[in-house]
């Protein structure tokens, strides 16, 4: 089938799916995005992302959004520092660093760039896809949670870690890494907590010791996003007898766990605003591959869920860009999907292996 006239359904309005939709629309192609969230602001979109020149910026250029990205991005915040957990003294960085042109931007701002660039009604909000069924002719039927169905010549699973589309291609399921992030934040830190703001400065600060770490990331408007990172059982809170809905109890438990660390670092937990959110880290097997099936594929976390150490969002956007390019240049829909998968699968396997190594370096089991 010629992809120019294909009915393309993207499941998930994350960065990768939106990059795909934007590039296709730039070239006059029709595409529909199904998103389970009720509206664009239905939930927080997470922290700041460093957008790399060789991956995420490539996709933004293809989407015609690079200049708008640079107008919002914060190049001054791409600084990364590691500090001693006891003294907060800055330590030398070891190992390879990413390219120097990796400005930061809040994930919500970046998603907004893509959403604002799409034609009206491209994203169908509140349409939760529960699965996909082959129709026998290479096309697929999407099942939605309201009982309705939608047919498509190409279904792209861009629906994240717990993808409802992945089971049509793969039996793989995310597994727990043994690392959990407990997230909180501080609002208007430059004004309300100037000492902490001076300690953090621009960018991201990490303090790490055996089995635990504190990471603080500057976002826009003086907001600091803080992650207490633990090597712990998946349900660590049960053994600790901590109610995750009780911010006072969570704070007390974390302060006990990080007892002896620099007082300013601990103030990041003491002065938090709002709740603590438990975020266990899951990953897909490495490599994660599947046997090609006509009319369906995956991108982003649905295809290669990996530790969140700076590559996931960049690769998701690059996936979307590469799939769009294949759809625009290959003769048939199936040739396009094959070309995309031949490029994406080995690339994502290498990246996932690298990210697993970075996670082990950031949160070592011992101090040795």
Automatic annotation (TrEMBL):
<protein>
    <recommendedName>
        <fullName>Flavin-dependent monooxygenase</fullName>
        <ecNumber>1.14.13.-</ecNumber>
    </recommendedName>
</protein>
<dbReference type="InterPro" id="IPR043683">
    <property type="entry name" value="TetX_monooxygenase"/>
</dbReference>
<feature type="binding site">
    <location>
        <position position="107"/>
    </location>
    <ligand>
        <name>FAD</name>
    </ligand>
</feature>
<comment type="subunit">
    <text>Monomer.</text>
</comment>
<comment type="similarity">
    <text>Belongs to the aromatic-ring hydroxylase family. TetX subfamily.</text>
</comment>
<keyword id="KW-0503">Monooxygenase</keyword>
<feature type="domain" description="FAD-binding">
    <location>
        <begin position="7"/>
        <end position="184"/>
    </location>
</feature>
<comment type="function">
    <text>An FAD-requiring monooxygenase active on some tetracycline antibiotic derivatives, which leads to their inactivation. Hydroxylates carbon 11a of tetracycline and some analogs.</text>
</comment>
<keyword id="KW-0285">Flavoprotein</keyword>
<feature type="domain" description="FAD-binding">
    <location>
        <begin position="296"/>
        <end position="330"/>
    </location>
</feature>
<feature type="binding site">
    <location>
        <position position="301"/>
    </location>
    <ligand>
        <name>FAD</name>
    </ligand>
</feature>
<dbReference type="GO" id="GO:0004497">
    <property type="term" value="F:monooxygenase activity"/>
</dbReference>
<keyword id="KW-0547">Nucleotide-binding</keyword>
<dbReference type="InterPro" id="IPR002938">
    <property type="entry name" value="FAD-bd"/>
</dbReference>
<feature type="binding site">
    <location>
        <position position="43"/>
    </location>
    <ligand>
        <name>NADPH</name>
    </ligand>
</feature>
<keyword id="KW-0274">FAD</keyword>
<feature type="binding site">
    <location>
        <position position="50"/>
    </location>
    <ligand>
        <name>FAD</name>
    </ligand>
</feature>
<keyword id="KW-0521">NADP</keyword>
<dbReference type="Pfam" id="PF01494">
    <property type="entry name" value="FAD_binding_3"/>
</dbReference>
<keyword id="KW-0963">Cytoplasm</keyword>
<keyword id="KW-0560">Oxidoreductase</keyword>
<dbReference type="InterPro" id="IPR036188">
    <property type="entry name" value="FAD/NAD-bd_sf"/>
</dbReference>
